[in-house]
Structure formats: structure tokens, C-alpha cells
Amino acid sequence: MPWFRTLVPETQYHQHQYAEALWQALPEGGVWLDLGAGSRIHGGWLGHGPEALRQRVRTLVGVDLVAPHLRQHPQLTGGALAEGETLPFRDGSVDLVSANMVLEHLTAPASVFREVARVLRPGGAFVFVTPNRAHPVIRLLALLLRPGARRLLARVVESGRAADRVFLTHYRANRVLDLLQLGWETGLNVERLVPFSSLPMFGRIPPLLALEAAWIRWFARPEGWYPEGGSNLLGVLRKPAGRLSPGEDAPVRLIPGPPAPSDGELLAQPSGERGGALLL
């Protein structure tokens, strides 16, 4: 556990919150699609571990744009190189869609949410965790810095993070109001949408850590002066129930696409078409 956790015991590491939400939403023996899957399900160390989550479903398919990350993922049963705006799966073919720290990178979130709603079975859930733009630091960075500058700053603040895992941020689906609107536009019912404070972002910079700890203690707690100002948002959106039940009919099927690229190469989908390269 990070030492600075003692300064702000009110915090809940966002990866643990996300793992718990996944555990509650995953259908036994169902089909799970992870957007921006990278090389792991989550980065937590308590609660429901990646393998325990994987064992709840029969199929876990990861979607990403970087081939090596998918190939390094130990829990995937399949992977696809594809954009979130053009998911290469049939309508109503998955029980759960997840996105771990992905929404902040979307340039066209409405298109991605429409695709999520399309591939979900009736009654299926979309579970995500993402930074909260209502947090003062994230809000200032989003307003004052261009995406490239924010990417450079992330590499400095998160010094242990590899350069190939730092991506541009846009924060177009990172406020409660944004997500409520996206759910309404795409026919996904908001089941849960909670701002909360994760571990401090500035644990390696003592003066900034002190300021952030004070913010969490006095403002961002549920009983604080500005509870909606937590560092993260946890969401569960659900497609209205219909005739199909989880695990029934309509198995995941990849629509044929171009060959898989070599390591490190990105796959650009043709405009207006759905396609994806399958990685085994």
C-alpha cells in the first residue's frame, strides 16, 4: 500500500473500485468485451484479481490499437485491433463491455457509446472508470494544456509508466452531465455514476501531495463541501432488457478485416466500415 494512503484514508483506489464493479456486473459464463484492453484487466492489488474476474465468463475479448499490448494480456481468449467507433462484432453479441481509464482518450465518445449499445445484449452492462473533469487539477489541465502537453506532463508525474502506454487525452466524456447525456442519446440507462477520490495523483511531489490531501479531506469526501469533485468517476450503464438473456444465442463473431499488423503498428479502419484484425 502506498505510504501516502495514511494521509487520506478516505480514498479508494480507483482500480479496486473498478474491479468490484466488474465483479458485480459480470454474468456467469457470459461474453465480456474490454475496450482499450491493453495488457491487463486492472492494476489493483486487493479484492477481485484479474484471473478471478476472467473465470466468471467463458469469453473475454480485448479491443485495442496496439498489437503488442494485446499479445501480452494473459487473460484474453481473443483480441481485435479496432477503433471503438467501429467495433467488429455483431449486434447484441456481448453481455458486458468495460473500459478502464479509456473514456478520457475518446475523440468521438457519442460514436463509441452508440457502438457499445449496439453490441450489448438487452440487459447487458457497460462498466467504466475514468478521470473526473470536475476535479480542479484535471479541469485546469483540460482547459490550459493541449493534448500533447498533457501527455508530456503525464510522463513526468507517472514516472514509472512506459512511454508507449501514455496516450493523448481529450476529456469529452468525463463529467457527470456528459455521461448522462451520452447515456440518454444512445439508449443506455444510467444505473450508477459516482464521483470518488482515488489515491493522490501527486504522491511523488510532497508539496502538491499536501495540497491534494487537504482538498480530499475538506472538499471531495461524500460529506465534504464539493463531493462531486473527486478525482474519478465510476459508471455502470445498462441496455434496457429484452428477449435475449446473458449467454443466450448470438455468439461473438468478428467481421473479416485486414490482416493483423506487425508489432507496434496501428490499424486504421476505413471510414464507414466495420472491420478488425483478430489476434490469437
Report the structural category. alpha/beta
Detail the poorly predicted runs. Answer: 243-273
Chain-averaged pLDDT? 77
Question: Helicity level, as a percent range?
Answer: 25-40%
Write the CATH architecture name: 3-Layer(aba) Sandwich
Strand order within the widest beta sheet? 6-7-5-4-1-2-3-8
Number of helices: 8
The H-level CATH homologous superfamily, spelled out, is Vaccinia Virus protein VP39
Helix and strand run: HEHEHEEHEHHHEHEE
Largest sheet properties:
8 strands, mixed
| Rg from alpha-carbon coordinates | 18 Å
Task: Kindly describe this structure.
By secondary structure, the protein is α/β, with parallel strands linked by helices. It has a single domain (7-240), classed as Vaccinia Virus protein VP39 (Rossmann fold, 3-Layer(aba) Sandwich), CATH 3.40.50.150. 28% of the residues lie in helices and 20% in strands. It contains 8 helices and 8 strands. It has helices at residues 14-25, 50-54, 67-71, 109-119, 136-144, 147-157, 176-186, 206-220, and strands spanning 30-35, 57-64, 78-81, 94-100, 120-131, 189-196, 232-238, 277-279. An 8-stranded mixed sheet has the order 6-7-5-4-1-2-3-8, sandwiched between helices. Helix 2 (50-54) links the parallel strand 1 and strand 2 (57-64). The protein is globular. Residues 243-273 have low confidence and may be disordered.
